[in-house]
Amino acid sequence: MPAPEHDHDSHAGHDHGQHHHSGQGATLIVALVLTLSFAGVEALAGWWSGSLALLSDAAHMLTDSSALGLAAGAAWLARRPPSSKHSYGLVRAEVLAALFNSLLMLVLIGYIVHEAIDRFGAPRDIKGSTVIAVAVIGLIINLVVAWVLSRGEHTLNSRAALLHVLGDALGSVAAISAGIVIVATGWTPIDPLLSLLVSALILVSALRLLREVVHVLMEGVPGHVQLEVIGKHLAMIDGVSRVHDLHVWTLSSGTIALSAHLEIRKLSDWPDILETARQAMDDQHGIRHVTLQPEVLVAHPLVRGTYPVPTPHA
């Protein structure tokens, strides 16, 4: 049986990937500096004012700093070249960072919910004016950080970091609202109540991201890819009789890999078939990392998972 042949990103495409991760890393570092510069101030203000909403917002900002630091580190690791131990390089580092960050957000939500429930049973005095002033500054910083991240590349990694920041922005809005209500009416239960509301909103996004990250780690077919359509496109190439053992998975954000066995009539046709298949996968599906195994046609019944050449209608 002939050895497998493949084609993948050109050297120019690889350089583009390096620039992509480099730019992403710089964006994440800027966001990290902005977030970390205010987290301590807000934590002290929350402790002094007695506001759970403000303390929750400070906790968000501290975890944002951790998330952004992990994301920046993962972007740096993703630029490392392939080695004998990691033939794909370390591009999956950003996926692992997204997984850790989504789990960290779930832990944080659990903490806020626990504290909010305690506050309902034991209300505390809250300095509403301090809460409003600090939360407004925190909101401005969060919006700036979110703007910086939104202008960068939208990878799983950066999306996880952006989720933290947007969650923190919601926390700032909740803290501002709580401060206004407390100053106007003195009703302190609004503080833990709004903290619970923000936690519920963040939970939906965190679970959605976690599901997507797990799907990537399980090497599931990307959501926008139709495996059967790809199989039929490969089977329609002149000289191809059947396609089997077709697999499509995500290496990292923006990088999809494909492997398949193609049964062909004549081995001498393989160079042309390989080039046609590579071009079709790139043009029609945006898949550039393609590994194909040629097999000289042997007679056997069709089995599940094969894609025979479509029979033309009369």
Intertermini distance: 36 Å
Examine the secondary-structure arrangement and name the CATH architecture of the largest domain: Up-down Bundle
Q: Quick one: CATH class of the largest domain?
A: Mainly Alpha
Radius of gyration: 26 Å
**Overall shape:** elongated
Number of strands: 4
Major β-sheet profile = 4 strands, mixed
Mean pLDDT, to the nearest integer, reads 78
Q: What is the structural class?
A: alpha+beta
List the helices and strands in order: EHHHHHHHEEHE
Low-confidence stretches: 1-22
Strand order of the largest sheet: 1-4-3-2
CATH superfamily of the largest domain: Cation efflux protein transmembrane domain
* CATH fold-level topology of the largest domain: Alpha-lytic protease prodomain-like
In the residues, how many domains can be counted? Answer: 2
Number of helices: 8
The amount of helix comes to: 55-70%
Description:
The chain is 64% helix and 11% strand. The chain has helices at residues 11-49, 52-78, 93-121, 128-150, 156-185, 190-217, 227-235, 270-285; strands at 5-7, 240-252, 255-264, 289-296. A four-stranded mixed sheet has the order 1-4-3-2, covered by helices on one side. The protein has eight helices and four strands; from the N terminus they run βαααααααββαβ. The chain folds into two domains: 5-217, Cation efflux protein transmembrane domain (Alpha-lytic protease prodomain-like, Up-down Bundle), CATH 1.20.1510.10; 227-296, Cation efflux protein, cytoplasmic domain (Alpha-Beta Plaits, 2-Layer Sandwich). The chain is α+β, with helices and mostly antiparallel strands and 314 residues long. The chain is elongated.
